[in-house]
Write a structure and sequence with these properties.
Shape: globular
CATH class of the largest domain: Alpha Beta
Number of strands: 17
Number of domains: 2
Distance between the termini: 22 Å
CATH architecture of the largest domain: Alpha-Beta Barrel
Structural class: alpha/beta
CATH superfamily of the largest domain: Metal-dependent hydrolases
Length: 461
Amino acid sequence: MQSAFASIEREPRGTLPIILAGGHILDLESSALQGSDVLIENGAVARIAPHGKIATPVARQLDASGCLILPGITNAHTHSPENMAAGFCDGLQLDDWLKAIWAQLDHMTPDAVRLAVFAGAAQMLKRGVTAVVDHFRQTPASLPAIDSARAAYAATGMRAMIAVMLRDRVADNGQMVGVASRIRPISIPEARELWTEVTKRNDPRSRVTMALGPSGPTRCSDEMFELAVEIAQRHSLCLHTHVAETRSCAENALQLFGCRTVRHLADLGFLGPRTSLAHCVWIDDEEIDLIAQSRTVAVHNPISNMVLGTGIAPVPAMLAAGARVAVGTDGAASNGGQDIFESIKCAALLARNSTPNAGDWLTASKAMKLAVNGGREIFSLAPPAIVPDVVADIAVFPFAEDTLDNFFDPVRQLVYGAKSRARHVLVAGEPVVVDGEITSFDDAALQAELRQIRKKFMPSN
């Protein structure tokens, strides 16, 4: 495949101080607004002062007038190769959907993987996402594909945690569970070798870090989960997996293990503050308590759950138990895109259909805090706030058609009524979106190349 990747990446910009001028800092706890200028230096918030009161002649000014300034958002679960398959099929439940989608995506070249990462990043950055957890699947696992994803995320400027997915459980028919073609299952020694190579690619000082992501308890042997725990503990890596996404996943786990999914993961030593669990739809009260007590992060993916008809995650019950919860889009093939605000809005609304007491509903403010707070905990970042000395992962959202004085509540307006297109986005103080345009890579060149090659990887269905 002939590629124009060189035209997509841009040279890094300078590191001058930056002033976000004339905006309104949004306190997510109180929904209060503070009209201020924000000075950013050396990757962190340096000073906050009334508009026009920061005198730094060499600073680059970014116009934030008529805008809300808030901490960057985290997309806590996706699969980047699926950016090549958005809208590919509909009306399928999970098992049939996996066969329809991944038969093609597992054969993507490293160049195509890299392009897919850029495609997802373009959507996320424009919506204020500064960090993403990519549960990265290629079966069989491919180090060149992993390296390609790493390089692409590094070029986007955003934070990314690439959780390399493996699986090895075989069904009665000899087919590896969760794989659409007859691929030889990876052995535990082979998995050890590959994940060990993954650890060599991890640099905690970088914005792109590595993690281990066994696919799920019903798709992996206990030995694979124990291996992941062993390697992650030795190298201080995070862990990520799917949990109880469907009723059948939960029932199969009960048959396989003689206990429910989260209990089994606890017995394997997989839970903990550096572990995140995607979906957690079919879990009971004991499992919720285990998640809360271990400080594991549950990742709510409401849109993909609705698209695939998997059920409604008990988010209010998890929050009532003190569990840490984040929000994800899941992959574009089961979501339709990577708009985190659609997931935040659906997170606020969906649980109301299964939670009769209005006092337990997830409000817009709570849903927004999950998308900001929960994800930062996965990345071990400081609590989100626009205050001095906190890392400057920041999203700035305009409201061109309304004035801030007209808002009953700015968070509700942002979650329920805004188009969620960011004016500026900064990661570690570096502007990656300015005036609505991505600065870290050429989005126009990206879209042109996507139009040329996407259908080569996903033939018409």
